[in-house]
From TrEMBL:
<protein>
    <recommendedName>
        <fullName>Endonuclease III-like protein 1</fullName>
        <ecNumber>3.2.2.-</ecNumber>
        <ecNumber>4.2.99.18</ecNumber>
    </recommendedName>
</protein>
<dbReference type="InterPro" id="IPR003265">
    <property type="entry name" value="HhH-GPD_domain"/>
</dbReference>
<comment type="function">
    <text>Bifunctional DNA N-glycosylase with associated apurinic/apyrimidinic (AP) lyase function that catalyzes the first step in base excision repair (BER), the primary repair pathway for the repair of oxidative DNA damage. The DNA N-glycosylase activity releases the damaged DNA base from DNA by cleaving the N-glycosidic bond, leaving an AP site. The AP lyase activity cleaves the phosphodiester bond 3' to the AP site by a beta-elimination. Primarily recognizes and repairs oxidative base damage of pyrimidines.</text>
</comment>
<dbReference type="GO" id="GO:0046872">
    <property type="term" value="F:metal ion binding"/>
</dbReference>
<feature type="domain" description="HhH-GPD">
    <location>
        <begin position="166"/>
        <end position="316"/>
    </location>
</feature>
<keyword id="KW-0378">Hydrolase</keyword>
<keyword id="KW-0496">Mitochondrion</keyword>
<dbReference type="GO" id="GO:0140078">
    <property type="term" value="F:class I DNA-(apurinic or apyrimidinic site) endonuclease activity"/>
</dbReference>
<dbReference type="InterPro" id="IPR023170">
    <property type="entry name" value="HhH_base_excis_C"/>
</dbReference>
<keyword id="KW-0411">Iron-sulfur</keyword>
<keyword id="KW-0255">Endonuclease</keyword>
<keyword id="KW-0227">DNA damage</keyword>
<keyword id="KW-0479">Metal-binding</keyword>
<feature type="compositionally biased region" description="Polar residues">
    <location>
        <begin position="63"/>
        <end position="80"/>
    </location>
</feature>
<feature type="region of interest" description="Disordered">
    <location>
        <begin position="1"/>
        <end position="21"/>
    </location>
</feature>
<feature type="compositionally biased region" description="Basic and acidic residues">
    <location>
        <begin position="89"/>
        <end position="105"/>
    </location>
</feature>
<dbReference type="InterPro" id="IPR000445">
    <property type="entry name" value="HhH_motif"/>
</dbReference>
């Protein structure tokens, strides 16, 4: 009985493998699969490389044959017959395309007309009529009349600059008197540089802000002597860098000394009258704002006369206080006609 049970146990153990045996069998199977995959990969890689080499060789052969075909001796003449290359095409852009598009756009959307004050042409013609006698102070004693015509051109230009510097916040009569005293003293860059401040003050008194102008004259003359060989700058950019010279003086200097129109010279008269006539899109607060506003719409060929016209008109008719509206030809078309006692408007 014992022998029969032992034989049965042995048979049971032989037919049913243990857990370790099962794990070992699984690992062995996976290892075989990995080895087979690597072998297959190597075979495929070798196949791919072989095909690549085959195609490369084929390509080189085709290129070589193509070159031989392009230059091959002919049997009849032995000359080399070259296959002509395909001509390259130069692409040129139509430079007028953008212009045509812009013209088409502009025709569909015409530009807005430039702003102009109402009745300004008639108003200007009336001012010309009122100024035809040229008998205002600016006509006899303005900066264009204060220089010594016998002096050298370089000295004349310097005297124009000094007269404009002195005219700021000063009546033409006072400026003209100061200029006569300066010319008697010797109004040149060299003389003013050598003149002491006390003497200069006595010569230009009582022009407005005479103490500051003495300082400006000395500084300005020293700069002209060192940097401009005694002459004055011939452009607005450098003129306004000089002590005591602002935009109005610079533009008037260009017009009188250099006979060049660079802009409109706007003083208190031009500033006041331009606003009274509503020649501004909106009321301006400073002469420089007025200059920019006038230059925006006033035709350039009128820039040279507008200062002279309006300054004299302001001195005689359109005065700061109690303007003489009853004597003005523009009284029927002036927006500010019949003003009472007024200053600055």
């Amino acid at each position: 009985m014992l022998t029969r049970n032992m034989t049965k146990a042995v048979r049971t153990n032989t037919s049913a493998p243990s857990a370790k045996q099962q794990t070992a069998a699984v690992l062995k199977q996976k290892a075989q699969q990995i080895v087979k995959a690597e072998c297959d990969h190597d075979v495929n890689r070798s196949k791919i490389l072989g095909e690549r080499h085959h195609h490369s060789t084929k390509l080189k052969t085709a290129v070589s044959q193509a070159h031989q075909t392009q230059a091959r001796p002919t049997e009849e003449t032995g000359n080399v017959q070259v296959r002509p290359r395909r001509k390259s095409i130069k692409v040129e852009y139509d430079s007028t395309a953008g212009t045509r598009d812009k013209e088409l756009q502009d025709s569909n959307n015409p530009p807005k007309s430039r702003w102009e004050p109402q009745d300004w042409i008639k108003q200007l013609d009336n001012i010309r009529e009122m100024r035809k006698n040229k008998d205002a102070p600016v006509d006899q004693m303005g900066a264009g009349k204060c220089f010594d015509p016998r002096a050298a051109p370089q000295v004349i230009r310097y005297q124009v600059l000094i007269s404009l510097m002195l005219s700021s916040q000063t009546k033409d009569e006072v400026t003209a008197a100061a200029m006569k005293k300066l010319q008697a003293h010797g109004l040149s860059v060299e003389n003013i540089v050598q003149t002491d401040d006390k003497t200069l003050g006595e010569l230009i008194y009582p022009v407005g802000f005479w103490k500051s102008k003495v300082k400006y004259m000395k500084q300005c003359s020293e700069i002209l002597q060192k940097q401009y060989n005694g002459d004055i700058p011939d452009n607005v950019t450098d003129l306004v860098k000089l002590p005591g010279i602002g935009p109005k003086m610079a533009h008037l200097t260009m017009a009188i000394a250099w006979n060049t129109v660079s802009g409109i010279g706007v003083d208190t008269h031009v500033h006041r009258i331009a606003n009274r006539l509503r020649w501004m899109k909106r009321e301006t607060k400073t002469p420089e704002e007025t200059r920019v506003g006038l230059e925006d719409w006033l035709p350039r060929d009128l820039w040279s006369e507008i200062n002279w016209l309006l300054v004299g008109f302001g001195q005689q008719i359109c005065q700061p206080v109690y303007p003489r509206c009853s004597d003005c030809l523009n009284r029927g078309i002036c927006p500010s006609a019949n003003l009472k006692k007024t200053k600055g408007r």
